[in-house]
Amino acid sequence: MPSLSPVIAEIRLAVRTALADLPEGSTVVVALSGGADSLALAAATAFEGAKLGVRVRSVTVDHGLQADSDAVATRAASTATALGLEAGIVRVEVGGEGGPEAAARDARYRVLKGAAADAGATAVLLGHTLDDQAETVLLGLARGSGAASLQGMAPVREDDDGVRWVRPLLGVRRATTRAFCAASDLEFWDDPHNSEERFARVRVRDRVLPVLESELGPGIAEALVRTAEQLREDAEAFDEMIHETIEDIVEHAEAGISVSVAALAANPAALRNRIIRLVVDSEFGVSLTRLQTLEVARLVTDWSGQGPIDLPECSAARQGGRIVFTAR
């Protein structure tokens, strides 16, 4: 018998590992665009799912952003059917708020979440690769938005609605998914948006990473991903400490919530700032910038009688021995 292609074996193993914790009889949804990454994921999940007793359904979201998007979606769904998957296509209208990339992503995730609910799926599988992760980390670094964005994408994340988002291919290079498709005789689609340099991610992919590889040596993408993994481990440890701390120092206040000044002052800056961000996010559903967080922290560390600080959806003020966050 001919030996199994190494690229097929690598991706099947990644998927098998991701599915291993699911109970037999589970259903998963695979997000399938028709590109090499999602097609390799769908094919490997079809193979491994059949062995593990996992039902697999693919969902292709037609954003309608290109003239032939309906044909691309139909071809992707047909390929999924040929692989033995239940395949569905959902067409959406993409608004312009936040730019086309963000609007398309929001529409896509809404569809996938709905598809998971309809199918009773245990998880939604996404085809992001190691290269996507490295690009995400670099973009986060450029924004200066701290360790949260430098953690990149989590391999497994459960959202507030209980939907489990799984990225089995975060340890796999993009070139490997293309080689998988070639070895499997699967024709994939190259999204022309992936070549449009008006998008920051494309510039990182085509210009920034190649320059870093050329000037600093190979392995930059892998190093960025290792950094993200280490930061995620640190963040998980911090989060556990914060949740334990918050139980003792937070109290509900009229139209808001309050935090003990003494307790905040007793914590190092890293924990203090995380507590402030978490309290505001949990109570008001907004994320503070670093500058906003530091201004609130000054109510603790550099108090000189300053008045309330306006924040998104709320205000922060020092009242006696507490920092009170009140809805606006």
From TrEMBL:
Domain tRNA(Ile)-lysidine/2-thiocytidine synthase N-terminal positions: 28-206
E.C. code: 6.3.4.19
SUPFAM superfamilies: Adenine nucleotide alpha hydrolases-like, MesJ substrate recognition domain-like
Primary role: Ligates lysine onto the cytidine present at position 34 of the AUA codon-specific tRNA(Ile) that contains the anticodon CAU, in an ATP-dependent manner. Cytidine is converted to lysidine, thus changing the amino acid specificity of the tRNA from methionine to isoleucine.
Domain statement: The N-terminal region contains the highly conserved SGGXDS motif, predicted to be a P-loop motif involved in ATP binding.
The keyword ATP-binding is assigned to this record: yes
Gene transcribed to yield this protein: tilS
This protein's name: tRNA(Ile)-lysidine synthase
Gene3D superfamilies xref list: 1.20.59.20, HUPs
GO molecular function per UniProt: tRNA(Ile)-lysidine synthase activity
Main location group: cytoplasm
Coiled-coil intervals: 221-248
Keyword hit for tRNA processing: yes
Enzyme class: ligase
Subcellular location(s) of the protein: Cytoplasm
Provenance organism: Microbacterium phyllosphaerae
Domain spans labelled tRNA(Ile)-lysidine synthase substrate-binding: 260-323
Sequence positions that bind ATP: 33-38
Reactions catalysed according to its record: cytidine(34) in tRNA(Ile2) + L-lysine + ATP = lysidine(34) in tRNA(Ile2) + AMP + diphosphate + H(+)
Keyword annotations from UniProtKB, A to Z: ATP-binding, Coiled coil, Cytoplasm, Ligase, Nucleotide-binding, tRNA processing
Family (UniProt): Belongs to the tRNA(Ile)-lysidine synthase family.
